[in-house]
Amino acid sequence: MEDYSSSKQVLLKKEKVYHENCSGCKVEYRKDTQTGIPVKIFISVWITTLGTALPISSIFPFLYFMIRDFHIAKRVEDIGYYAGSLTAYLWGTLADRYGRKPVIIFGTVVVVIFNTLFGLSTNFWMAMSMRFLLGSLNGLLGPIRAYATEVCRPEHQAFGLSLISAAWGIGLVIGPALGGLLAQPAEKYPSLFPQGSLFATFPYFLPCLCISILSVASLVASVLLPETLHTHAGTKEGKEAYGSDEKEIMQESSTKTVLDSKESLWKNWPLISSVIVYCVFSLHDMAYSEIFSLWAVSPRKYGGLSFSTAQVGQILSFTGIGLLVFQFTLYPTIERMLGYLTVARIAAVLTILLLSCYPSIAQLSGLSLSLVLNSASILKNAFSLAIDTSFFILQNNSVPQHQRGTANGISMTALSIFKAFGPAAGGAVFSWGQLRRNASFLPGSNMIFFFLNVIEAMGLFMSFRPFLGLPG
Questions:
Q1: pTM recorded for the entire structure
Q2: Cα–Cα distances in Å, from 51 out to 99, 145, 421?
Q3: What are the TM regions of this chain, as residue ranges (predicted)?
Q4: Which of 67, 103, 188, 200 could make an S-S bridge to 95, C-beta 3.0–4.6 Å?
C-alpha cells in the first residue's frame, strides 16, 4: 500500500506496518484511515445473523403438527441448537486458523441446504437428521461475533455487537410469524395451493423455503465481507503490523502476557470470568423467558394475567420492534457516554427494580395493563441486550485476534449448558411459587420474581472489577 494521502497519514499509527497482500492488514488500514461506522459491512453482518436465527424459531408454530404427523417426541426444536453449541469450539478454532469469512460462508450455505431439506422431511429420522446437521455444521455465530469486533474501530464495537444481538432477537420474533403464516398452506390457502401440489404434499416446506431464499441473500452478503484475520507470515514485523491495537485491548483487560497456545485460553481469567458472568446473566434471561410465558397465561387467581398464547405473542412482537428501535437509537449514545461495562451494571440494577414491580402488574387490567406490560417487556429485553453486548465486548477484548474465534466457541458451549438448566429452573420455581400463594413471606409470584432477582444480583456482583480481573 503506497501513496497515502496526507490526510490519511495523520490517522495512521507510525509503528504499524501494513502488508499489501494481507486481507487483515487491509481492514486495519481502513480502520486507521476511516473513523466512521462501516455501514455496508454491518448491514451484511446483520442480514447474515438474521438468516441464521430464523430457522431456529420458525418451526415453533407448526412443531405440534409435525410431532403429530411424524409421531415423534417433543423438543425437536432444541436438537439443532445443542448440536451447534457443542460444536461451537471446533468452528471457533477453524475460524482462528483459516479465517472468519470461510466459516461464515460455510455456515450460511448449511442453512440454505439443510433448512430446505428439513421442510421436505417425510419422517422422524429425516427431520431429526436435518435439524442435527443444520445445527452442528453451522458454526458462524461465534466467529461473526469476533468479526464484528475486528472489522470496526474500538469506539464502534459496541454498536457492531449489539447489531448481532438485535438481529438474533428479531429473528426469534419474525421466525414464528413466518412459520405460523406459511405452514400447511394447502389448508390455509386452498385457492393458491390446491391438494396434490408440492406444498400440500410437504406442508412445512413453504416457510423453510422462504427462509432459505432469505439465507441466499445472507450468503451474498457474507461473500462480500472482507476477511479480518491476518494472513502474512508471523515475523516480528508482521506481528507489529497489527500488534499495537491488540496491546491496548490486552491492557484494558489486564492480561499480562500474549497468549500463544490454545491451552492458555483456560488460564486467561479475564476471558473465563467474563464467560462465567455472561452465563449467569443468560441463565437469568432464559429462566425469565420461561417464567414470563407461564405467568402471563396463568389464571389471575394464581397471580397471573390470564392471557392467551396469541396475546403473549403480541407482547413479544411489540418487544421485538421496541428492541430494534432501542438498538439503533438509544444504545450507541448511552454506551459512548458511560462505557459498556458501566451500562451493563446499570442495566442489571434497573432489571432488579423492574422485576420487583412485576407482581403488581397483575393488579392492572385493560389498556393500563397492556401499556405497562408492553413497556416493561421492552425495557427488560433492552436491559438484557445491553448486558449481553457488554460481555461480548469484554470476551473479545480479553484475547488476541488469533484466539477470538475459539474464545467465542468456548462462550457458546458454556452457554448451552446454562440454557439446559434455565427453562427447567424457571418452570420449577414457578410451580413452587404457585404452591405457596398464601405464604406470609413473598407469596406466589413475589417469590418467583425474587428468584430471578437473586440470579441477576449474582451477575451484578460478579461484574465488578475484582472478579473480572480488571485493574482499578
A1: 0.73
A2: 20, 15, 27
A3: 41-67, 104-125, 160-183, 204-225, 275-297, 309-331, 337-359, 414-435, 447-468
A4: 103
Please spell the DSSP secondary structure of 269-321, one letter per residue. HHHHHHHHHHHHHHHHHHHHHHHHHHHHHS-GGGTS----HHHHHHHHHHHHH
Look up residue 440 and give its amino acid: S
pLDDT digits (tens, 9 = 90+) for 390-412: 888 888 888 888 888 888 888 88
Q: How far apart are alpha carbons 173 and 155 in whole angstroms? A: 29
Neighbours of 187 (CB within 10 A): 12
| DSSP code per residue over 311-339 | HHHHHHHHHHHHHHHHHHTHHHHHHHHH-
Residues 6+ apart with CB under 8 A from 194: 186, 200
At 87, list the grid cell: 460444536
Task: Kindly provide the b/e burial profile for residues 312-350, where b requires at least 16 CB atoms within 10 angstroms of the residue's own CB.
Answer: bbebbebbbebbeebbeeebbebbeeeebbebbbbbbeb
Helix, strand, coil in percent for the chain, rounding step 5: 75, 0, 25
State the cell numbers at 139.
458454526
Which letter does DSSP use for residue 36 in this model? Answer: S
- pLDDT tens, residue by residue, 68-98: 566 554 454 455 555 556 677 788 888 888 8
Pure H helices in 34-156? 39-57, 63-70, 76-86, 88-98, 100-119, 124-136, 141-150
Cell of 426: 424457571
- The Cα 163–Cα 411 span in angstroms is 18
